[in-house]
Specification:
The protein is of the alpha+beta class. Helix content is about 25%, strand content about 25%.
Length: about 775
C-alpha cells in the first residue's frame, strides 16, 4: 500500500504535519473552494483492525463534541484504499510552537489560552467524552484570539477505560494506573500545561517514564516558582486524587475566572489575547495556514465526494452513490456508527467494509441510543503522609465507572468517598488539638490510619459496602477509634439509603426493633442484660437505637449492609450498653428471616421476592378465576393460584408481583405510560437494552425477537435463574409480564408459564392511562 490516496473532491495544497500513524494536509474542496485540514491514516495501518477501529473511534468521538472551542469534524471517509478525517482548518499555531518561540507566557495570556481550551474540554465532558491527551501540541491558538482543542485519538467515554497511553509529562496518576478516564483526568493535564506556560518548564521532568510515573503519583507539585496568586489554582488542578480536583473542566473554568479577576482585573482576558496576537499571527504567517487569509477556512463542504462528481461505490456493494448532492451514504457496508449526543450514549463499531465500497460519515442527528454502559466498581486507595502533623494514612474506598448518567455516577462516588474523607478529617482534627499534639511529640508517636473496604453486594440498583477503620497509635489507643461502618447506595439516584428506605414502617418502632432483636438472637452469642434503677430487674439490651445510652430513633443500633445471603450486622456490644470490655460480633441474618421486615421496593432492588408484611393478616388471594385485571391499564393476566400477591410500582406505571417463596419463583405483570408516542423506546431498542443488561450482569440470552408490537426474550440471569419477559408496546402505553424462577423448577413450571403467556391480554395501548 502507499499513501497517495486522497479524499475524492479535494486537492492537496500542502502538508501540515506527519506522525507515526498518519499525516495532516491542508486541502481545497474543489467544488466550493473552501479549505479543510485532512488527517489521513497511513495506508500500512488499514490492515490493522485495532488501529483502524481506533481511527474510526476518533471520528465518532469528535463528531459528538460540537463546540466553538473544539476543531470541527466535517466528514469521516473510509474506502479500501484509505481512511481520513476531514476537519476544520484553523488559521493559527499550536501552543507547542508558541511556547517554543516565547518559552514563558504572561499569566494573563496563559490563563486566556487555558480558559479557551478548558471550555472545549467542558463541552466534551458535557456529552460524556474524556480527551485523555491534553498537551501543548493539541491546543491551537488562532490569530483571532481563540484557542481550540484537537486530536481525540485517545478519547474515551466518561468512566471508561481506553489505552493505557498518553503524553507522560501531562498524565494524571489515575491514567498512569490504567484506570477509567474521568473529566478530572483532563483537568490534571490542562493544569500541567498551564504550569509549563507560566514557568517555562513542565511540573515534573525525568529521564525515564517510570521516574515520571513516580513523580506524578507521589511528588508534591513544585509551586515555589509559580506566582503566589496562582498556586491554589494549580494545587487544586494537580491534586493526586481526582476527587480533590474540580470535577469537570467547566468547574475549573469557574475557579480560574474568579482567580483571574481578583488578581489581574476584569479586563484580564482582553489583555491576555493582546499579548498573544502578535506572536500567533507571526508564527502562522510562516506556515501553509497563512493561505487561509485569502481562501477562507472551510465551512462544512458540500460533500466529501464533491458536488456532482457521481462517485460510485461499485456494483453489488450495498453502498449508495451520488444522490444529487454527491453525498455518499452507507446502506449496508458493514459499518455502524453511533454518535455521542447530548448525553454519552456509547460507541458501536462493526468492522468489515465490502470491497470497493465508500463510506462517508457526516455528523448529524443522533441515532437511537444503545443500552447504557454498565456500571463497574474498582477499589481505590488514598495514601500519604500528612505534611504538618504526625500521621500517615492508607484508606481504601470503592469507585464506580460507566453508567448512563455522569451526574448520578458523581453522586455515587461522592457517597462512597465520604466515609474516608470524614475519617481522615476526624483523626486529623484530633491529632491537631494542641494538648494531643504535645503528647504525640513527647512520645514520638505517629497516628497510622488504615481503612479497608469490601463490596458486600452489587445489583443493578444498589451497592452495599462495608468499611473497617483501624488506627495504630499509642496516644489515640481507645477501641472507639477502630470500628466498622456500612453504606448502601442507590445506583439509580446516588442516594445513600437509610433505614426508612429499607424497612417497613411498622418495623421502625419499638415493637419492630424487638422483632429484629428476636430474629438476631439465635445467631449471636447472647444479648447481655444491664442494670436499670437500683432495686429493679435488669434489662436485656436490644437492637433498638432508642434504648442505647444517649438514645436515638427506633432504627437498628448497628452498622449493617446486605450480602447475597442476608443482612450483615456488625454488633458492637459495648455500644449497646454491655460491659466496656465486650467486643464485637458479625452476624448475618438470612433473607428467609428478614424479607418480611423489608419494604417490597427495597427487596426488588436487592433482587429478592417480596413477602407480606408481618403486621398484616392473611394475604389477599387471587380471585376464583385465577386472573388479574388492571383497571387502569386494562391488561388481563392469568395468575398462579396460591402465590402471594403484592402491589408493585414500576416507573411511570403500576403492576403486581405474585411470588412463591418456597420455590423462589415470581411473576411480574405491569403497565406503563411509556409508549413510543410519548418518547418511549421502540420494541427493538427496548429489547437491545434488556439483552445488554442481562449479559452485562453475567446472564445469557437464549432467545429474543421483536416486531412493531413488542418484544420477547428468554434466557438465564447471572445467578442462574430462568428469565422470561414479554412486553407489548403501543404509541400510548405498554403492558408486560416477566417470570423469574430457578432452573431446577423448569419442568414443574413449564405449563404454568406457558399458560400465563398464552392468555395475557395487553389491553388498549394506543393511549396513555
Amino acid at each position: 500500500m502507499n499513501d497517495t490516496w486522497c479524499v475524492p473532491g479535494y486537492a492537496e495544497v500542502d502538508v501540515l504535519g506527519t506522525g507515526g500513524f498518519g499525516r495532516v494536509v491542508l486541502a481545497k474542496h474543489e467544488a466550493s473552494g473552501q479549505m479543510a485540514a485532512i488527517k489521513y491514516l497511513h495506508a500500512d495501518f488499514l490492515a490493522d483492525a485495532a488501529i483502524l477501529d481506533g481511527f474510526r473511534r476518533e471520528a465518532w468521538m469528535l463528531s459528538g463534541v460540537r463546540s466553538p472551542h473544539v476543531v470541527r469534524l466535517f466528514d469521516f471517509v473510509e474506502t479500501p484504499q484509505g481512511a481520513a478525517l476531514v476537519m476544520e482548518a484553523v488559521p493559527g499555531v499550536s501552543l507547542r510552537a508558541l511556547l517554543a518561540a516565547e518559552n514563558v507566557l504572561a499569566p494573563e495570556a496563559a490563563l486566556t489560552i487555558l480558559k479557551g481550551s478548558l471550555l472545549g474540554l467542558a463541552d466534551a465532558h458535557a456529552v460524556g467524552v474524556v480527551h485523555r491527551d491534553y498537551k501543548p501540541a493539541n491546543v491551537l491558538v488562532s490569530r483571532e484570539g481563540a484557542s481550540k482543542l484537537v486530536d481525540f485519538g485517545l478519547a474515551t467515554l466518561d468512566g471508561h477505560n481506553g489505552l493505557t497511553a498518553g503524553s507522560p509529562s501531562y498524565m494524571a496518576p489515575e491514567q498512569w494506573a490504567g484506570q477509567p478516564g474521568l473529566p478530572a483526568t483532563d483537568v490534571y493535564a490542562a493544569t500541567c500545561v498551564f504550569y509549563q506556560c507560566i514557568t517555562g518548564h513542565r511540573p515534573f521532568e525525568a529521564d525515564t517514564s517510570e521516574q515520571l510515573r513516580a513523580l506524578h503519583g507521589g511528588a508534591p507539585v513544585p509551586l515555589d516558582v509559580v506566582p503566589e496568586a496562582l498556586r491554589p489554582l494549580i494545587a487544586r488542578g494537580m491534586a493526586k486524587d481526582p476527587a480533590w480536583r474540580p470535577a469537570t473542566a467547566a468547574a475549573f473554568v469557574t475557579e480560574l475566572e474568579t482567580v483571574a479577576r481578583k488578581e489581574y482585573g476584569k479586563n484580564w482576558e482582553k489583555r491576555g489575547w493582546k499579548r498573544l496576537a502578535t506572536s500567533a499571527a507571526a508564527l502562522t504567517a510562516l506556515t501553509p495556514l497563512a493561505l487561509l487569509t485569502s481562501a477562507g477556512t472551510a465551512a462544512a463542504p458540500i460533500a466529501a465526494a464533491g458536488a456532482g462528481t457521481g462517485v460510485t461505490a461499485g456494483t453489488g456493494t450495498g453502498v449508495a452513490a451520488g444522490t444529487g448532492t454527491g453525498v455518499a451514504t452507507s446502506t449496508g457496508a458493514g459499518v455502524t456508527a453511533t454518535v455521542v449526543g447530548k448525553v454519552a450514549i456509547g460507541v458501536v463499531i462493526v468492522a468489515g467494509l465490502v470491497a470497493g465500497g465508500l463510506v462517508v460519515f457526516r455528523p448529524g442527528g443522533d441515532p437511537p441510543a444503545p443500552p447504557p454502559p454498565q456500571l463497574t466498581v474498582a477499589m481505590q486507595t488514598l495514601a500519604g503522609q500528612d505534611q504538618a502533623l504526625p500521621m500517615s494514612y492508607e484508606l481504601q474506598y470503592p469507585q464506580v465507572s460507566g453508567g448512563a448518567d455522569p451526574a448520578v455516577r458523581q453522586r455515587v462516588n461522592e457517597a462512597l468517598r465520604a466515609p474516608i474523607d470524614k475519617r481522615l478529617k476526624t483523626v486529623r482534627d484530633s491529632v491537631a488539638d494542641p494538648s494531643t499534639l504535645d503528647m504525640f511529640r513527647q512520645r514520638g508517636d505517629t497516628a497510622a490510619l488504615h481503612s479497608s473496604a469490601r463490596i458486600l453486594l452489587q445489583t443493578p440498583d444498589l451497592l452495599s459496602v462495608r468499611y473497617d477503620h483501624d488506627l495504630k497509635s499509642d496516644v489515640l489507643s481507645h477501641t472507639t477509634w477502630r470500628f466498622p461502618e456500612a453504606f448502601t447506595v442507590d445506583l439509580t439516584t446516588g442516594k445513600v439509603l437509610g433505614p426508612q428506605d429499607m424497612f417497613r414502617p411498622e418495623i421502625l418502632t419499638a415493637d419492630g426493633m424487638r422483632t429484629l432483636t428476636q430474629r438476631l438472637t439465635p445467631h449471636t452469642g447472647e444479648f447481655c442484660s444491664v442494670p436499670t434503677v437500683e432495686g429493679y430487674p435488669t434489662r436485656q439490651v436490644s437492637m433498638d437505637a432508642a434504648e442505647m445510652p444517649g438514645g436515638g430513633g427506633h432504627v437498628p443500633a448497628s452498622a449493617f449492609g446486605f450480602t447475597g445471603t442476608g443482612a450483615e450486622f456488625e454488633i458492637l456490644w459495648y455500644k449497646l450498653g454491655c460491659a466496656s470490655a465486650s467486643g464485637s460480633e458479625s452476624v448475618v441474618l438470612p433473607y428467609a428471616e428478614l424479607n418480611d421486615l423489608l419494604l417490597p421496593k427495597f427487596l426488588t432492588m436487592l433482587g429478592k421476592a417480596a413477602t407480606p408484611s408481618p403486621a398484616s393478616s392473611k394475604p389477599a388471594q387471587p380471585g376464583a378465576d385465577a386472573t388479574y385485571t388492571n383497571s387502569r391499564f386494562g391488561f388481563t393476566a392469568q395468575v398462579p393460584p396460591g402465590y402471594t400477591p403484592l402491589k408493585w410500582t414500576p416507573e411511570n406505571g403500576e403492576g403486581m408481583t405474585y411470588s412463591d417463596d418456597k420455590i423462589d419463583a415470581t411473576l411480574y405483570v405491569w403497565g406503563t405510560n411509556s409508549g413510543t408516542g410519548s418518547g418511549g423506546l421502540s420494541p427493538a431498542d427496548k429489547l437491545a437494552q434488556l439483552v445488554a443488561s442481562l449479559e452485562g450482569n453475567g446472564g445469557r440470552v437464549t432467545f429474543s425477537t421483536s416486531d412493531s408490537e413488542g418484544y420477547t426474550v428468554s434466557g438465564y440471569q447471572g445467578d442462574g435463574k430462568i428469565y422470561y419477559a414479554h412486553e407489548s408496546i403501543g404509541t400510548g402505553s405498554t403492558a408486560g409480564l416477566r417470570w423469574v424462577y430457578p432452573a431446577a423448577q423448569k419442568t414443574a413450571l413449564d405449563k404454568l408459564v406457558t399458560d400465563t403467556v398464552r392468555t395475557f391480554k395487553p389491553g388498549d395501548l394506543s393511549q396513555p392511562h
